[in-house]
Write a structure and sequence with these properties.
- The protein is of the alpha+beta class.
- The chain has a domain of 103 residues.
- 18% of the residues lie in helices and 50% in strands.
- The chain has 3 helices and 13 strands.
- The strands form 2 sheets. Strands 6-9-10-13-12-11 form a 6-stranded antiparallel barrel. The chain has a two-stranded antiparallel ribbon with strand order 4-5.
- A hairpin with a 5-residue loop joins β12 and β13.
Length: 365
């Protein structure tokens, strides 16, 4: 069962405080309570059952002619005699209008504050962007210094060449592979592990500790409704109070294993050409030549390879070695002045005295 609590109000004209809610005119100045009155609870003074039975649950109505608040039971204004029917507002309407004005003022202030905050953020962002821009420029400058091609003048101090001929011998060799090559003499084949696949082996039960919110008990919560006539109604309801509960949950976790995948592996011998040695030649001139190797009856020449380099000296005395294509290398002489554009990955572009640009790779210093 709800209870009625006596309300109080303050007079805005003479500043008299704590006037009982059942008093309609200020005892200090005699002014009736008007549209600015706001009831409040002072000491939670409960009315007796007999007093509460006489309390109306209707709000006071507002006279728009003289601004007085009148009891809902009054048909004419106590202040000026105006008819109740001429009024369309009550105490709650006044409070809602007051709240709407307060909300509008708060929204306006919030809008101004937000605009000021956005301006501050924009200024801070601008400063950050400037800072980021400066940092980015510095980083770009560093990266350019590291990764941008560097162009230097250099003088050729040496030309050199190396040539090699692979010498192969026809031999019978033993090998194994997952496929049997043509011409092989099979010795045996075995079923062996070729690779492993991940497969589900079983599930393991794990116990995981978890938490959840559960109701512990209920508490009575009291709220106070302003009746708008100098009284308040106490209304109660039950609200749940939660606690954190720890519990254990059983979880099935998959366990995987490596499953071997078998294939046939072939063991065989086969006659094939095998590199057994090289025949090398080198020089520091422009007359590269191949050795004429002496071959046994079961030997032959294999792949021929050549490396052609120049050594250059930079203005600061630093020396570097570059590998060139033979055709380009043939056009470079000791004493030539070159312009070298060096990339960070070792690639280089070399401009020859005649203006031709050739590609090269730095292989040493």
């Amino acid at each position: 069962m709800s209870k009625i609590i006596r309300g109080y109000w303050d007079c805005s004209s003479c500043d008299t405080k704590g006037i009982r809610g059942d008093v309609r005119n200020c005892p200090g100045c005699g002014k009736p309570r008007g549209d600015d009155v706001k009831f409040y609870i002072k000491d939670k003074e409960y009315l007796s059952d007999e007093e509460a039975a006489k309390v109306s649950h209707e709000a006071d109505w507002f006279c728009e002619y003289c601004g007085a608040l009148n009891a809902a039971s009054e048909t004419k204004c106590k202040g000026c005699g105006a008819e109740k029917a001429a009024s369309d507002k009550d105490y709650h309407d006044l409070r809602r209008e007051e709240q709407a004005k307060a909300d509008a003022a708060a929204a306006k202030k919030a809008a101004r504050d937000n605009a000021a905050l956005e301006a501050q953020r924009a200024q801070a962002k601008k400063k950050r962007l400037i800072g980021f821009g400066i940092a980015a420029v510095a980083i770009i400058a560093i990266l350019m210094a590291i990764f941008m091609p560097k162009t230097s003048d250099a003088t050729v101090t040496q030309v050199a060449w190396e040539r090699s001929i692979a010498i192969e011998q026809y031999q019978n060799v033993e090998e194994s592979d997952w496929e049997l090559p043509e011409g092989a003499n099979l010795h045996e084949k075995k079923n062996e592990v070729h690779h492993y696949d991940q497969v589900l082996d079983h599930y393991e039960t794990e116990y995981v500790e978890k938490t959840r919110e559960v109701i512990d008990h209920y508490e009575t919560v009291y709220e106070y409704e302003d009746l708008g006539n100098g009284n308040f109604e106490e209304v109660s309801h039950e609200e749940p109070v939660y606690v954190t509960e720890t519990y254990t949950e059983e979880v099935e976790t998959p366990v995987y294993r490596d499953k071997p995948v078998y294939q046939t592996k072939y063991y065989y011998d086969i006659d094939k050409w095998v590199e057994v040695r090289t025949s090398d030649s080198s020089g520091k001139d422009h007359n590269p030549k191949w050795n004429e190797p002496t071959l046994a009856s079961d030997e032959r020449e294999g792949t021929r390879t050549g490396v052609y380099t120049i050594t250059v000296e930079m203005k600061k005395g630093k020396a570097s070695v570059y590998e060139l294509e033979e055709s380009a290398w043939n056009g470079v002489e000791v004493g030539d002045s070159l312009e070298i554009k060096q990339h960070h990955d070792g690639a280089a572009e070399i401009k020859l005295p005649g203006g031709e640009t050739i590609q090269a790779t730095r292989i040493g210093e």
